[in-house]
Amino acid sequence: MMASLNKVMLIGYLGADPELRYTPSGAAVANFRIATKDQWTSKEGEKQERTEW
After folding, report:
1. Residue 42 sits in which domain range?
2. Domain assignment of residue 2, yes or no
3. Spatial CA neighbour of 34 closest among 17, 19, 12
């Protein structure tokens, strides 16, 4: 099997410290809680905001 490199860029707000765990075979796994925020103005001119996790 050939080695390869994958890259991911996540943009958002970190909701908590990353959690680092290890699988039974010793591979490291990190969990991140990331939120994104969307802002817009409604048809009535009111500012709206939505956060998604």
Report:
1. 13-52
2. no
3. 12
Mark residue 49 as left, alpha or beta (left: phi above 0; alpha: psi -120 to 50; beta: remaining).
beta
Would you call 46 exposed, middle or buried from its count of C-beta atoms within 10 A (0-12, 13-18, 19+)? exposed
31 has pLDDT over 70: yes
The single-letter DSSP state of residue 16 is S
The pLDDT score that the predictor gives to residue 5 is: 87
Q: Which residue from 37, 30, 39 is spatially nearest to 8, judged by alpha carbons? A: 30
What pTM, to 2 d.p., does this model score?
Answer: 0.59
Calpha distance 46→44 (Å, rounded): 6
Buried-exposed string 27-40: b where 16+ CB fall within 10 A, e elsewhere: eeeeeeeeeeeeee
